[in-house]
């Protein structure tokens, strides 16, 4: 059975989402406050073990023309760090506009600014993961 986990990696936080057991829907799980590479890894390993994750989908921020900018390079560097230390398949997925989409959804739901800030990363991770799974289920 394949279980997916999606990540929206930022400088200060990592949004985390996981798939249901059938791999059809993504649910936002949590936002990790980044402390150090080792602590980030420890927390991700814990979730991977607890949820029996087999595939990690990492959103790669791209410019609108498809090129990878400085933030994308940072995320790829973090992904390479994880590849050397985790025993799961790692997939990169285009995350253009996922945070904007998540923010718009919360605005429509009349979520207060402070709550939006707390939830935006895990909702972006959910969008990244759902779009990846949708592409696999066509």
UniProtKB/TrEMBL annotation:
Keyword tags: Cytoplasm, Hydrolase, Nuclease, Ribosome biogenesis
Family: Belongs to the YqgF HJR family.
MF annotations from Gene Ontology: hydrolase activity, acting on ester bonds; nuclease activity
EC id: 3.1.-.-
Every YqgF/RNase H-like domain range: 2-102
Protein location: Cytoplasm
GO cellular component: cytosol
Function noted in UniProt: Could be a nuclease involved in processing of the 5'-end of pre-16S rRNA.
The keyword Nuclease appears for this protein: yes
Gene3D superfamilies found in the cross-reference section: YqgF/RNase H-like domain (3.30.420.140)
Keyword Ribonucleoprotein included in the entry's annotation: no
Lineage top rank: taxon: Bacteria
Gene Ontology biological process terms from the UniProt entry: rRNA 5'-end processing
Protein name: Putative pre-16S rRNA nuclease
SUPFAM superfamilies documented for this protein: Ribonuclease H-like (SSF53098)
């Amino acid at each position: 059975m394949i279980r997916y986990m999606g990540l929206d990696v930022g400088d200060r936080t990592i949004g985390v989402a996981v798939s249901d057991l059938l791999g059809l829907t993504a649910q936002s799980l949590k936002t990790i406050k980044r402390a150090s590479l080792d602590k980030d890894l420890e927390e991700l390993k814990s979730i991977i073990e607890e949820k029996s994750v087999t595939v990690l989908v990492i959103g790669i921020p791209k410019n609108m023309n498809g090129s990878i900018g400085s933030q994308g390079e940072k995320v790829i560097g973090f992904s390479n760090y994880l590849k050397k230390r985790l025993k799961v398949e790692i997939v990169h997925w285009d995350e253009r506009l996922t945070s904007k989409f998540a923010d718009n959804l919360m605005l429509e739901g009349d979520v207060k600014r402070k709550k939006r800030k707390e939830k935006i990363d895990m909702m972006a991770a959910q969008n990244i993961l759902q779009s990846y799974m949708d592409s696999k289920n066509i």
